[in-house]
């Protein structure tokens, strides 16, 4: 028996990294453990950003009215996730990225069963290392770290994968997904960065329902 978890997320969303951490904690508490398949679906919160992204300080100052308020929002994220084992490094971030390339790379990784490893590595690279995830070179390096090599640079410098990612994003819209993180576990849909217990309960319920069926 394999339980499928559908995750719709964007690499610019800190709560998507938080959900990944909390979901993994919940999975670790499943007893007995079950075989899981995590499927990653793209969502772009800022699809109109330039391909190379924008200077983060300028972008967020304009979006939120001031850099000080932007920093206060970042601090709230850090404060709310102190028990999740995540070291947010907003101080290292220079770019607010366009995430289309990152989504394309995750889709490519999924063709060889490595979507989860790729998505998690990209999220960490941006939020805990401050790396520019619009960069083909950086994405290729991250791909190599999770065991994907060779075809990444030519893939990302072409238009390969653009149409399929855009189609997947439209499917999210048709499912009335308006924001991320959005997680579907069995028949249960979880929106936002809920607690570990919420994810564990959803997992246990889905396992019970699947066993009963």
In words, what does this structure look like?
The protein has helices spanning 14-28, 56-64, 67-80, 100-110, 115-127, 136-145, 152-156, 162-174, 196-212, and strands at residues 2-9, 35-42, 54-55, 95-96, 182-185, 188-191. It is an alpha+beta fold. Helix 1 (14-28) links the parallel strand 1 (2-9) and strand 2. Helix 2 (56-64) crosses helix 3 (67-80). The chain is globular, with a radius of gyration of 17 Å.
Task: List strands and helices in order, with pairings.
Blueprint: E1 2-9, H1 14-28, E2 35-42, E3 54-55, H2 56-64, H3 67-80, E4 95-96, H4 100-110, H5 115-127, H6 136-145, H7 152-156, H8 162-174, E5 182-185, E6 188-191, H9 196-212
Parallel strand pairs: 1-2
Antiparallel strand pairs: 1-5, 3-4, 5-6
Domain DSBA-like thioredoxin: 4-204
InterPro entries: DSBA-like_thioredoxin_dom, Thioredoxin-like_sf
Protein name: DsbA family oxidoreductase
Short summary:
With 213 residues, this protein is an alpha+beta fold.
Supply the key terms:
single chain; 213 residues; alpha+beta; two-stranded antiparallel ribbon; 6 strands; 50% helix
Broad shape: globular
Number of DSSP E strands: 6
Lateral strand order in the biggest sheet: 2-1-5-6
Give the ordered list of helices and strands: EHEEHHEHHHHHEEH
Strand coverage percent: 5-15%
Quote the distance from N terminus to C terminus.
11 Å
Flag low-confidence runs. none
Gyration radius, rounded: 17 Å
Reported for the largest beta sheet, the result is: 4 strands, mixed
Residues in helix, %? 40-55%
Structural class: alpha+beta
How many individual helices? 9
Q: Summarize model confidence as the mean pLDDT.
A: 95
């Amino acid at each position: 028996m394999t339980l499928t978890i559908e995750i719709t997320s964007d690499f610019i969303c800190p709560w998507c990294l938080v959900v990944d951490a909390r979901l993994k904690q919940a999975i670790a508490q499943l007893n007995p453990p079950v075989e899981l398949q995590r499927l990653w679906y793209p969502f772009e919160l800022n699809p109109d950003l330039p391909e190379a992204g924008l200077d983060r300080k300028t972008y967020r100052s304009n979006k939120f009215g001031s850099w000080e308020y932007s920093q206060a929002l970042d601090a709230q994220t850090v404060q709310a996730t102190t028990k999740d084992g995540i070291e947010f490094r907003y101080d290292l971030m220079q770019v607010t990225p366009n995430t289309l390339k990152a989504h394309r790379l995750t889709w490519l990784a999924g063709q060889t069963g490595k979507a989860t490893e790729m998505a998690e590595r990209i999220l960490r690279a941006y939020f805990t290392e401050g790396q520019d995830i619009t960069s083909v070179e950086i994405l290729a390096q991250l791909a190599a770290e999770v065991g994907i090599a060779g075809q990444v640079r030519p893939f990302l410098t072409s238009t390969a994968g653009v149409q399929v990612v855009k189609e997947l994003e439209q499917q999210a819209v048709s499912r009335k997904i308006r924001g991320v993180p959005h997680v579907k576990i069995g028949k249960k849909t979880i929106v936002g960065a809920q607690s570990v217990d919420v994810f564990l309960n959803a997992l246990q319920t889905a396992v019970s329902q699947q066993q009963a069926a």
